[in-house]
Amino acid sequence: MLIRLTPNENMPLHEQIAHAVRDGILNGSVADGERLPSAKALGESLGVSLHTVLRAYQALRDAGLIDLRRGRGAVVTALSEPSRAKATRILDEAVCHLNELGLPPETVLALFRSRLERAQIS
Amino acid sequence: MLIRLTPNENMPLHEQIAHAVRDGILNGSVADGERLPSAKALGESLGVSLHTVLRAYQALRDAGLIDLRRGRGAVVTALSEPSRAKATRILDEAVCHLNELGLPPETVLALFRSRLERAQIS
DNA sequence: ACCTATTTGTCCGTATGTATG
DNA sequence: CCATACATACGGACAAATAGG
Question: Positive or negative CA dihedral for B45, B48, B50, B56?
Answer without folding.
Answer: negative
